[in-house]
Q: What sequence folds into this?
């Protein structure tokens, strides 16, 4: 077994504990709740809320301690459970202005709300020391079709992680990633799409140790949406899905055969039909683009795919049984091997797209 260094830091990024563990299992999932647990000698300096970093060479795992359980004779050891920075801090309810949908970029919207609560908050105790945000892409014309049940009201209460961050990943492929700089005692949040070149994976090749393919999207998937104003049904807009995954009202470069759906929306006084109809179309199309669950197991040091270099949001084309399926990296699990998890489908869909 290979030894990994375990470093635990307080909220000011000061080292408070250090030990080693045998090679741990480490899981990451942008769309569902996952935890990681290691066994270490008991140390009173390790508390819930501490940062934890597990390191071996260039390999680094980072998170926040959220549970401690003492074990062994006289509590000589402790099970330390930790979650991602995003899951620990952003699983909270906030007030969201629905007018922000489609106004500016999605990345800037996420940055605004995270900054408001965790960097510039008037409550200085809620600020995260050393936290900064960098946006790496700009996704416009976005929307989650979020609206208030009260006519004329455009502020609603939502869960920051489930309703904004996870839906941004599942529907617009915009991910939030926390990267610590221990030496400078800072944490940088990178918000954006992964613009790396698409990776090709052939499941029949011998470097693929195992695979699990669950394809929900077919040639009968939705590719046209007509959105009507329920208050004036003569007002309608058609949106078309294109082969590159984008959609708009342009009746060119179409996907055939046509599979259409019609939805009616109510347009509040605080928005426009154009903005509301695009948000409704986005909501409809977003469910099918990478609507699959593909799990590929590889050797950690596989040279054909180099799985350790892949980051969340990596686009892939998976060739299986002669068929090419497009998908996106949304999670992984590292043991003695590495399991890459692609697609926006999970067994428990309620954990993916919590609407509020």
A:
């Amino acid at each position: 077994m290979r030894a990994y260094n375990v470093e635990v830091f307080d909220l000011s990024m000061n080292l408070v504990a250090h030990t080693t563990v045998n090679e741990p299992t480490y899981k990451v999932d942008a769309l569902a709740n996952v935890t990681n647990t290691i066994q270490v000698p008991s140390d009173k300096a390790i508390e819930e809320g501490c940062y934890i970093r597990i390191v071996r060479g260039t390999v680094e795992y980072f998170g926040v301690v959220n549970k401690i359980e003492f074990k062994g004779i006289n509590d000589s050891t402790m099970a330390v459970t930790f979650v991602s920075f995003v899951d620990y801090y952003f699983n909270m309810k906030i007030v969201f202005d629905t007018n922000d949908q489609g106004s500016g970029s999605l990345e800037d919207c996420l940055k605004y709300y995270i900054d408001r609560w965790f960097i510039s908050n008037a409550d200085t105790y809620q600020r995260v020391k050393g936290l900064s945000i960098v946006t790496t892409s700009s996704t416009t014309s976005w929307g989650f079709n979020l609206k208030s049940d009260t006519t004329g009201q455009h502020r609603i209460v939502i869960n920051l992680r489930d309703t904004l961050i996870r839906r941004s990943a599942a529907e617009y492929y915009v991910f939030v990633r926390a990267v610590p700089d221990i030496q400078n005692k800072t944490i940088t949040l990178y918000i954006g799409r992964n613009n790396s070149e698409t990776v090709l994976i052939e499941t029949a090749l011998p470097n693929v140790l195992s695979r699990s393919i669950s394809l929900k999207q077919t040639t009968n998937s939705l590719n046209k949406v007509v959105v009507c104003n329920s208050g004036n049904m003569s007002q309608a807009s058609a949106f078309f899905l294109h082969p590159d995954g984008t959609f708009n009202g342009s009746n060119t470069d179409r996907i055939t055969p046509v599979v259409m759906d019609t939805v009616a929306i109510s347009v509040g006084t605080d928005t426009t039909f154009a903005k509301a109809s695009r948000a409704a179309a986005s909501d409809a199309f977003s469910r099918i683009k990478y609507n699959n669950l593909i799990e590929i197991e590889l050797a950690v040091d596989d040279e054909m795919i180099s799985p350790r270099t892949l980051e969340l949001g990596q686009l892939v084309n998976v060739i299986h049984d002669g068929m090419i399926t497009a998908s996106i990296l949304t999670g992984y699990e590292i043991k003695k091997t590495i399991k890459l998890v692609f697609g926006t489908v999970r067994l428990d869909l309620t954990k993916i797209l919590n609407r509020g």
About this structure: The chain has four domains: 3-83, 88-192, 199-217+290-351, 224-285. The CA atoms of residues 102 and 341 lie 30 Å apart. Residues 348-356 have pLDDT under 50 and may be disordered.
